[in-house]
Design a protein that fits this description.
single chain, 209 residues, alpha+beta, Glutaredoxin, Glutathione S-transferase Yfyf (Class Pi), Chain A, domain 2, 4-stranded mixed beta sheet, 4 strands, 48% helix, Thioredoxin-like_sf
Length: 209
């Protein structure tokens, strides 16, 4: 029986990267199947049979069960590890930042990056109002993060956790969406701490098959 996880993943996606990073940090065996929506790979009958929502990432557990939604994968994989706080309140704070990442951070910073760098052919179709809105709301999210990092090294529980992994995934490439991080010294220091964490791998890293 193959004991590896299988991750359907798009290399450029921060949501996919966060799952790849945690799998690597936990030293869990896994294989990657590059599934690029730009090539229609997430709309094929075979992929839709696995994930009717037609999105990556998609994680298939060694026993065949499947999970979609990147932060649900982080929570599942981190259970019982140092990457998910054991204290109930600290764990709730961790979840708080996971929700923040998906509702406030990803829809602005990740979307701007997607339009400007991942799907550059789209940028001409974005209105000036859309571009300005992404910048305004993205900087608002960055300011919230900066406030937290002014008094904390990490986002939850006093240690590196899946909250940091989730927020790092798109923050460290925010410049590709037109966001200048110069005004955010707390964020820049935190990005350095994450990048120097033992086991860190870059967005473009792939496991050896």
């Amino acid at each position: 029986m193959d004991n590896r996880y299988t991750l359907y993943s798009m290399e450029a996606s921060g949501n996919c990267y966060k799952v790849r990073l945690l799998l690597h940090l936990l030293r869990l065996p896994f294989r990657l199947i590059e599934t690029d929506p730009r090539q229609g790979a997430t709309r094929t009958p075979d992929f839709l049979a696995l994930n009717p929502n037609g999105r990556t990432p998609l994680l298939v557990l060694p026993d065949g069960r499947r999970l979609s939604e990147s932060n649900a994968m982080l929570i599942h994989l981190a259970e019982g590890t140092a990457y998910l706080p054991a204290d109930a309140y600290d764990r709730a704070v961790c979840y708080q930042w996971l929700f923040f990442e998906q509702y406030e951070h990803e829809p602005t910073i990740a979307v701007a990056r997607s339009w400007m760098s991942v799907y550059p052919e789209k940028i001409g179709k974005a209105t000036a109002e859309q571009l300005a809105d992404w910048q305004t709301r993205g900087h608002r999210a960055l300011a919230v993060m900066e406030t937290r990092l002014a008094t904390h090294d990490w986002f939850a529980g006093g240690a590196f956790s899946i909250a940091d992994i989730a927020l790092y995934s798109y923050t460290h490439v925010a410049d590709e969406g037109g966001f200048d991080l110069t005004p955010y010294p707390g964020i820049r220091g935190w990005l350095g701490r994450v990048a120097s964490h033992p086991g860190h791998v870059p967005l473009t890293w792939r496991p050896v098959e």
